[in-house]
Specification:
β5, α2 and β6 form a beta-alpha-beta unit. This protein has about 240 residues and is an alpha/beta fold. It folds into two domains: about 60 residues, no CATH class; about 180 residues, Flavodoxin domain (Rossmann fold). Helices cover about 35% and strands about 20% of the residues. Bound molecules: flavin mononucleotide (FMN).
Length: about 240
């Protein structure tokens, strides 16, 4: 694993001793120290300590993106989030589901067996579970399609967030999961018919809280059809990355 801040051109690594500060509860931290060849850069250390003082710490974030077009606003918003999060010291692991050609159809191999939470799922699902477990937080960025998420992302959840691993005697491995939903409509048009609350209930309560996520959040990035709305939307994505 490369520590954050070691991209070409970044500041030189500090070799030798390292300190790990891990927040284990709102009012308590575990502090560890060692010399096991860990390479933290000054910037990463500063970001970690600054984050600690602000109540956060640097994280490995799996950024799951569900949009078929590389030139989409969703891709731009994901890059804005990722750049700001990286600047804050976090590490981004990209999961561009469309580019990876993820199959969202739940076939029999991945159907939950209610009598056997230890069921072994397909290789593809096991690989996705392992990718999630290599990270510490999840961010899903997607366009709002029919007041919900695209089938591609829904299928990723259907297959991977499975019985015995994300629920059914287990919890999703990450305490912090954010959903960033890019919408064509504005906030007023969503509020008018209660689509905003419907999405909170369906996605935040029905999926994230159901799977034991302790810090779930759905962030609506409205107004993607409007040029000014697009700029505000990209700024909001960057802000979410900066204060992740
Ligand atoms: C199949 C489909 C369904 C959509 N449904 C909605 C919707 O329910 N509400 C909404 O505000 N926008 C909806 N939109 C608009 C998308 O949210 C919009 O295309 C997206 O925000 C623009 O970003 P993009 O360039 O990344 O696609 C829909 C778009 C498509 C293609």
């Amino acid at each position: 694993m490369e520590p954050p801040g070691t991209a070409p051109g970044s500041d030189p690594p500090i070799m030798g001793a390292f300190i790990a500060i891990v927040r284990v509860a709102p009012d308590s931290v575990n502090i560890g120290a060692g010399t096991a060849g860990c390479k933290w850069t000054r910037r990463a250390l500063d970001a970690m300590l600054e984050g600690y003082h602000e109540g956060t710490h640097v994280m490995k974030i799996l950024l799951v993106l569900a949009h078929p077009r590389q030139t989409s606003l969703c891709h731009a918003a994901a890059r804005a989030f990722a750049d700001a999060a990286t600047d804050a010291g976090h590490q981004i692991d990209w999961a561009d589901l469309a580019a990876e050609r993820f199959d969202p159809v739940l076939h029999e191999a991945d159907e939950p067996d209610w009598d056997n939470p230890a069921k072994i799922y397909s290789q593809e699902v096991q690989a996705e579970m392992a990718r999630i477990e290599r990270n510490e937080a999840t961010v899903m960025l997607f366009p709002v399609w029919w007041w919900s998420m695209p089938a591609l992302l829904k299928g990723w959840i259907d297959r991977v967030w499975n019985n015995g691993w994300a629920y059914g005697g287990a919890n999703y491995p990450h305490a912090k999961v954010q959903m960033l939903a890019v919408a064509g409509g504005d906030a007023a048009s969503f509020a008018k018919r209660g689509y905003d609350q419907a999405m909170v209930v369906q996605l935040e309560t029905g999926i994230l809280r159901y799977c034991g996520v302790q810090e779930p959040s759905l962030h609506m990035l409205y107004d993607s059809f409007d040029p000014e709305g697009r700029s505000a939307l990209l700024a909001k994505a960057a802000e979410l990355g900066a204060r992740f």
